[in-house]
TrEMBL record:
The chain crosses the membrane at residues 29-50, 57-76, 96-129, 136-154, 174-193, 225-245, 251-277, 298-316, 336-365, 377-400, 415-436. InterPro entries: Glcn_transporter. GO terms for cellular component: plasma membrane. Signal peptide: none annotated. Keywords: Cell membrane, Membrane, Transmembrane, Transmembrane helix, Transport. The keyword Chloroplast does not apply. One of its GO terms (molecular function) is gluconate transmembrane transporter activity. It comes from Pedobacter psychroterrae. The lineage of its organism: Bacteria, Pseudomonadati, Bacteroidota, Sphingobacteriia, Sphingobacteriales. This is Gluconate transporter. Belongs to the GntP permease family.
Length: 437
């Protein structure tokens, strides 16, 4: 009955948005409250759960998304993305641009949280799309596939890193095996799959469509690439410093502070304001005007993500994930496949890859230990399952839909199918590694 209620809630959300054209944020609120009632949450707790879900998801994303939008607007308007795209096309050529975008997404995705990487890379994607008149999904999906897979499969991202600890796995081996599993999944879900999406109409947000600037007026290659890569450099530095200095050094706390994604984005925005703004002849008033325009374009995105957080919280507090896991615990399947399946079903119901991974861990640990399953591979199996079935209760689904201004149908055909492809490929890769090692 619980699963049926979840399915009905998801169907209601799709109908309200697609058929009745209800604002997605309002639709999320209505469906969240309805789901809470049907799932038996006390009426006095439902409003609080909705508010908590909105607060929790925005608390972690609002600074990242707003500063990312400001940065994206400045990078676009200054000509930095035009310069980066020009250099990339000269190096790789239009024929191999998908592979260039995939490689960029993979390298950026290893240290960056998915949300940070998404808002940072979107201007680069759109610059290539507008400058060379290529299909948006054909160009963008390979990079975003790489970002998603690194987020779900590889430490030091939150869920894989936590699973390594809970499963008592080896961080280095998990990362090594993770590369072996992630790369084929990214290739198939990114460059190969996106070639089938060329005819899907996608119009990237106008905010990132900068006026074509003459080549002699573009910022230097150093300024352009340095600004784009600075978040990666700062996060990588924050990760390396603790490995090089004593644990009791004051620099440990400094590195932790500087490595917080919100702080990183704020620092990068300040540097970009100077490098691509004032040092290029723009006044502070002009730069702030660009930032204000950027925020106007993402208000609805923030509200939609907030709504997805409300629904996710209702589903979590109703105990949906635990009920699903309990039903599957006694099923006679290979432990790696079972870990993947539990994570996939929880992801489908609650929308969060992190929640799916961490919830699965508590259920699968006893079976993993009794069967002698390789803990490094179990981290990857659960991570692959946690990427499956992305749909309307996943904030990543809405980020992709709204930034590319896609219909619901086309978002399912592109984003949701891509996530399912990489989830299945991840499972196949894990099972193959298990047969080899």
């Amino acid at each position: 009955m619980t699963i049926l209620i979840v399915l009905l809630s998801i169907a209601l959300l799709i109908v309200l948005i697609s058929a009745f054209k209800i604002n997605p944020f309002l639709a999320f609120l209505v469906v969240s409250i309805t789901a809470g009632i049907m799932l038996g949450l006390p009426l006095t707790k439902i409003a609080g759960s909705v508010e908590k879900g909105i607060g929790d998801i925005l608390g972690g994303l609002v600074i990242i998304i707003t500063t990312g939008a400001m940065l994206g607007k400045l990078v676009a308007e200054s000509g930095a993305t035009q310069k980066i795209a020009k250099v990339m096309m000269e190096v790789f050529g239009e024929k191999y641009i998908q592979w260039a975008m995939m490689l960029t997404g993979f390298l950026v995705g290893i240290p960056l949280y998915y949300g940070v990487g998404f808002v940072l890379m979107i201007p680069l994607i759109f610059s290539v799309v507008y400058r060379f008149k290529l299909p948006a999904l054909y160009v963008g999906l390979p990079m975003l596939t790489a970002l998603s897979v690194t987020h779900g499969f590889l430490p030091p991202h939150p869920s894989p890193a936590a699973l390594v600890i809970q499963f008592n796995a080896n961080m280095g081996l998990t990362l090594l095996y993770g590369f072996a599993v992630a790369i084929p999944a990214i290739i198939i879900g990114g460059p190969l799959f996106s070639r089938t999406l060329k005819k899907i109409p996608a119009t990237p947000l106008a905010s990132f469509k900068a006026v074509e600037i003459p080549d002699d007026q573009l910022p230097s290659s150093f300024k352009s690439f340095f600004t784009a890569l600075l978040p990666v450099l700062l996060l990588a530095l924050a990760a390396v410093v603790p490995l090089l200095i004593p644990a009791d050094s004051v620099l440990i706390n400094v590195a932790a502070f500087m490595g917080n994604p919100s702080i990183v984005m704020l620092i990068v925005l300040m540097v970009a304001t100077w490098l691509l703004g004032t040092s290029e002849g723009k006044s502070i008033s002009q730069v702030m005007g660009l930032y204000t325009d950027a925020l106007k374009d993402i208000v609805m995105i923030l509200l939609i993500i907030a709504g997805s957080g409300a629904l996710k919280q209702i589903l979590i507090e109703s105990g949906v994930s635990n009920q699903i896991a309990g039903h599957l615990q006694g099923v006679q399947l290979h432990p790696l496949f079972l870990g993947w399946l539990i994570a996939a079903l929880i992801r489908f119901c609650v929308g969060s890859a992190t929640v799916a991974g961490l919830t699965t861990a508590g259920i699968i640990i006893p079976l993993m230990q009794s069967s002698g399953t390789n803990p490094n591979l179990m981290v990857l199996a659960v991570g692959a399952g946690s990427l499956m079935f992305s749909h309307v209760n996943d904030s990543g689904f809405w980020l992709f839909k709204e930034y590319f201004t896609l219909s619901m149908k086309d978002t399912f055909k592109s984003w949701a199918l891509m996530e399912t492809i990489v989830g299945v490929m991840g499972l196949l890769g894990v099972l193959l590694l298990n047969a080899i090692i």
